[in-house]
Amino acid sequence: MADFIPFDDRDGVMWFDGEMVPWRDAKLHVLSHALHYGSCVFEGERAYSGRIFKLKEHTERLYESAAQLDITIPFTADEINDACNEVIARQDIVDGYVRPVAWRGSEMMGVSAQVATTHVAIATWPWPNLFGDDKHERGIRMKTSKWRRPSPDTAPVKAKAAGLYMICTLSRHSVEPDGYDDALMLDWRGQIAESTGANIFLAQNGVLHTPTPDCFLDGITRRTVMELARQRGHEVVERVIMPEELAKTDEVFLTGTAAEVTPVGEIDDHNFQVGPITRQLMEDYEVEVRKG
């Protein structure tokens, strides 16, 4: 933790409501609607060799998430894309993370927010592998969380909304003290859903299986890796997957912008090899994100 720098005390600039502002000046009021009622959506993007991977798709999803929360973003998609590219250039980011975020402001304090304005900010910073390079060799350790992904009729489950990550934080906090790297989340039916911030794949007898994304994000990285797997001739099946199937699974890996392709070595009492399918897709994904 000696190298940890708080995110509110860094050098550089952020894009904030259409302007570049000093990093430390990018602030919001304590009575912002988003802080009290979760009216906030965001994106997670990665830049590789100075280029944001699938920027257009991420921006499109930001708008889709906002629409699900009845939030109107006061900038065009092209303006957001241009701002993302400008901020990584201004921050001199070669390989790093990009975080666009949109939230309701402080004009109203109450559940309703009809006249609250929408603010948008974009920040970027260097960020290496989410779990550390050593985990690529042996895989991360996971434990099943008691918290579950909600039913689609109880929350806007297709939105990348800040409030939906509360149970992810609780899940991580419940397993990390015991040495686990992440938590496996089931859905409200008891089916395997995802990790706290990434989609999950299981390799069984040479076939890749992944849960149907009906109550969690159909990740941009998820879809990319599915296409890469099919290009390699692997069958990819989206279906209901129950926890009991972990006992007959050979390989497990996660996919996400932050996680990229991360192998899993352990879930609860089940152990998995970092096998050939996982290793090949890790390599293929690295090539894909760095294409010119």
Architecture overview:
This protein has 292 residues and is of the alpha+beta class. It folds into two domains: 13-126, Aminotransferase class 4, branched-chain amino acid transferase, N-terminal domain (D-amino Acid Aminotransferase, Chain A, domain 1, 2-Layer Sandwich); 135-289, D-amino Acid Aminotransferase, Chain A, domain 2 (Alpha-Beta Barrel). It is built from seven helices and 16 strands. It has helices at 33-37, 55-68, 77-90, 135-138, 166-175, 220-231, 276-289, and strands spanning 13-16, 19-22, 40-42, 45-48, 51-52, 96-104, 118-126, 140-149, 182-187, 192-195, 199-204, 207-211, 236-239, 251-256, 260-267, 270-271. The strands form two sheets. Strands 8, 9, 10, 11, 12, 13, 14, 15 and 16 form a nine-stranded mixed beta sheet that branches. Strands 1, 2, 3, 4, 5, 6 and 7 form a seven-stranded antiparallel beta sheet that branches. Helix 2 (55-68) packs across helix 3 (77-90) and helix 6 (220-231) crosses helix 7 (276-289). The mean pLDDT is 95.
